[in-house]
Write a structure and sequence with these properties.
Blueprint (H helix, E strand, L loop, with lengths): L3 E5 L4 E6 L11 H15 L7 E6 L4 E3 L4 H6 L2 H20 L3 E6 L2 E3 L1 H7 L3 E5 L5 E3 L13 H9 L1 H10 L2 E2 L1 H7 L4 E3 L4 H5 L14 H22 L4 H12 L5 H16 L2 H18 L14 E4 L3 H12 L4 E4 L3 H20 L5 H9 L1 E4 L10 E4 L5 H14 L5 E4 L6 H5 L8 E6 L8 E6 L5 H13 L3 E6 L6 H18 L3 H11 L5 H8 L1 H14 L9 H7 L12 E2 L7 E2 L16 H21 L6 H12 L8 H8 L1 H12 L9 H8 L14
Bound molecules: nicotinamide-adenine-dinucleotide.
Nicotinamide-adenine-dinucleotide (NAD) binds next to helix 13 and helix 16.
Length: about 700
């Protein structure tokens, strides 16, 4: 079956329409590339009388979504080399056509799709939300190698191109227009009409601006130093992409293409790119999975959020930005007002980043009804409770929901660690209670833990999962257990960090050691962000649930006493002056015992990481989620756990389970919380691993 339709018009214009059969997306596999090459060869023949070419897609939300990653994942280095050659050759043919070429872009135009558009003379895009143009390859640990690393800097200049290539960014149409990545924008229904006149504009030569050619070595040196500082060398794709994008654009095409190819072959052989591509497939799976054996549920329309604090207001903003009406309720009128102010700020920031038009932002704010007093909630399909992390308060909120809501509404809680079952029993209909654990900051973190208690009906769990997917978040289904998965694994790590400080290690050294490991933020900085009070609440829940191995950090009560609540109070492990970078709070040393012995620097990260691995293994042992991959996915998406390492359990495999158990046992001689769990011990004994195959097939 054909993907590309060719239409030759009387005026000599030719239209190639991409429409991959039986698929919602267009992608480039070998077959589609061959098809494209045959069309380009045919229309290049003078006899056919083609005077211009327009490339368009007939999919509702995709132009071309890039190369077939599943196929790439299975390819040998040789096969990948041939695949790169094929794409480079075809896009070179497109660029070399003697008549004008235009890409008419509606929907995702990313990776190979963007590289095709870059090989055209002109680009016209729709202002639709689905339209995203860019090169996300470095996020997958590779780089654009079908001419993108060469043609993007030539088209929009080095600085703007590096921003897109190194950031793995995709731009909305208007932002792309501003950067010169597209030449015009139009409403979706007028795309063709807007694009056709560009066929008469003539050929266009894309050359690196002279200034960029001169400053490329300087830019390369400066950006390289910044990247090394920021990523500590953990992302080789960024360094390779920087090399190629700052050298190739000034070279002749064949040499430039050879640079791109050599770099992508080198990168694709590294474990980091395999981890990042695997992560991409896990994200895709999370977007689509459903609860087994349940019929498609009614979609969730309007929602109510109870508690207008940090989380409640951010959740309300997110849901409203996805077109739903939201009631935002708090017992404290000043918190409602502050919540609405922060919602307005979030919409304003979205307008600045071209995520919303000013009208969409206004409509988004208008869809939220602030409620400083109790109001009936009969119009909503979903309530999300985000009040303070205290069981008694939450139970009172849930007990009122029986009378305030319709019997078919879902009752969800954003609790960090409390029992969903216990909350469910506070209502007359426990089957409609479910956990929806969003992460902070809501606008950045894609993960939502969907927690199914024994009481939760499968239909409610399924409806909650679909709701999470419908608002553009990624659900992971978790059983009800204290701290669920992410906080359960994170807590022992954060506690160890605080205890290392208590014992005499330096705040900066503890955090630096985990930044070196690849975490986006050190554990003590993270504790400040979460809030010392919230960390103390979660710690209390988990230490009482798992007294044998969970410890309470001894410094936290002292910090609470001294009103050092972390970022929200201006000081915690760090000082947080408004608008400035935090700096270590040296005064905190007074709160710990005198004469402590700092741990050796090289032991710090190992101790903290081993505790995460041990707890992750326990979560798997207790079947809180189905698979090791679910745990790793949740940790990467919920905490930013070094994505290139693939997650704590994948990392344990890489270290070697026997070594993990040996190290845990060694540390357990002085601290029982290091005792390796039964699953780890058994795996070590049987020379097993969490993943059968170190490079398993996707999905
Ligand atoms: P917060 O202290 O910022 O906000 C809580 C709000 O709840 C306050 O505005 C308070 O006035 C309000 N409230 C208290 N009792 C209420 C009641 N009976 N009815 C209505 N409103 C009431 O707290 P937060 O950080 O937004 O956390 C809210 C929930 O989300 C907690 O369960 C917390 O564990 C969870 N959570 C927090 C984070 C985080 O990083 N802060 C992350 C994920 C989940």
């Amino acid at each position: 079956m054909q993907t590309i339709q060719r239409q030759l018009k009387e005026d000599g214009s030719c239209i190639l329409t991409f429409d991959r059969p039986d698929s919602p997306v267009n992608i480039f596999d070998v077959g589609t590339l061959d098809e494209l090459e045959a069309h380009l060869e045919a229309i290049a023949q003078p006899g056919l009388g083609v005077k211009s070419l327009l490339i368009i897609s007939s999919k509702p939300a995709v132009f071309i979504a890039g190369a077939d990653l599943r196929a790439i994942q299975q390819m040998s280095q040789d096969a990948l080399g041939r695949f790169i050659d094929l794409g480079q050759r075809i896009f070179a043919k497109l660029a070399a056509l003697r008549f004008t070429t235009v890409a008419a872009i509606h929907g995702a135009c990313v990776g190979g799709g963007c590289e095709l558009a870059l090989a055209c003379d002109w680009r016209v895009a729709t202002v639709d939300h689905s339209t995203k143009i860019g090169l996300p390859e470095t996020k997958l640990g590779i780089l654009p190698a079908w001419g993108g690393s060469t043609r993007m800097p030539r088209l929009i200049g080095l600085a703007a191109a590096l921003d897109i290539i190194l950031g793995g960014k995709t731009l909305a149409a208007k932002a792309a227009l501003k950067r010169g990545l597209v030449d015009a924008v139009a409403p979706s229904e007028h795309l063709l009409a807007a694009a056709l006149p560009w066929l008469k504009k003539g050929k266009r030569k894309h050359e690196l601006p002279i200034g960029d050619a001169v400053s490329a070595p300087f830019i390369r040196g400066k950006v390289r130093a910044d990247l090394m500082k920021k990523t500590r060398g953990h992302y080789p794709a960024l360094l390779e992409a920087l090399e190629v994008a700052t050298r190739a654009p000034a070279l002749k095409d064949p040499v430039a293409m050879a640079l791109e190819k050599a770099a992508v072959l080198k990168l694709s052989a590294l474990p980091s790119s395999r981890s990042l591509i695997r992560l991409f497939f896990q994200q895709e799976r999370a977007k689509k999975f459903t609860f087994p054996g349940t019929p498609p549920p009614a979609p969730v329309g309007a929602a109510a959020v109870i508690g207008a604090g940090v989380m409640g207001s951010a959740i309300a903003q997110w849901i409203s930005s996805r077109g739903r009406r939201v009631i935002l309720r708090d017992i404290d009128a000043s918190r409602v007002a502050a919540g609405m102010a922060s919602i307005t700020q979030l919409f304003d920031a979205g307008v600045r980043r071209h995520l919303f038009t000013p009208k969409e932002a206004r409509d988004g704010i208008d869809r939220i009804s602030p409620a400083p007093a109790e109001v009936p909630l009969h119009a909503v399909d979903l309530v999300i409770e985000a009040a303070v992390e205290k069981m008694e308060i939450k139970k009172k909120v849930f007990a009122r929901l029986d009378d305030l809501t319709r019997p078919d509404a879902i009752l969800a809680t954003n609790t960090s660690a409390l029992s969903i079952s216990e909350l469910a029993r506070a209502t007359r209909h426990p089957e409609r209670v479910v956990g929806l654990h969003f992460f902070n900051p809501v606008q950045q973190m894609q993960l939502v833990e969907v927690i199914k208690a024994p009481e939760t009906s499968p239909a409610v769990a399924e409806r909650a999962i679909r709701f999470v997917q419908s608002i553009g978040k990624l659900p992971v289904l978790v059983k009800d257990s204290p701290g669920f998965v992410v906080n359960r694994i994170l807590l022992p790590y954060m506690v160890e960090a605080a205890e290392l400080f208590w014992a005499g290690s330096k705040i900066a050294e503890i955090d630096e050691s985990m930044l070196d490991f690849g975490m986006p933020m050190g554990p003590l900085r993270l504790t400040d962000e979460v809030g010392i009070d919230v960390a103390e609440d979660v710690s209390a829940t988990l230490t009482s649930a798992f007294p044998e191995w969970m410890r309470a950090p001894r410094i936290l009560p002292k910090m609470l006493e001294a009103k050092l609540l972390g970022k929200k109070s201006g000081a915690g492990f760090y000082q947080h002056p408004k608008g400035k970078e935090p700096s270590v709070n040296n005064a905190l040393r007074k709160l710990r015992p005198k004469g402590g012995q700092p741990f050796p620097r090289e032991e710090l990260a190992l101790r903290m990481v081993l505790l995460m691995i041990n707890e992750a293994a326990r979560c798997l042992e207790e079947k809180i989620v189905e698979t090791a991959a679910d745990i790793d996915f949740a940790m990467v998406m919920g905490t930013g756990f070094a994505p290139f390492r693939g997650g704590p359990l994948r990392h344990a495999d890489a270290l070697g389970i026997e070594k993990v158990v040996d190290d845990l046992a060694r540390f357990a001689q002085t601290g029982l919380h290091f005792k390796p769990c039964a699953l780890l011990v058994n795996l070590a004994r049987n020379k097993g691993k969490f993943y059968e195959d170190s490079n398993p097939s996707p999905g």
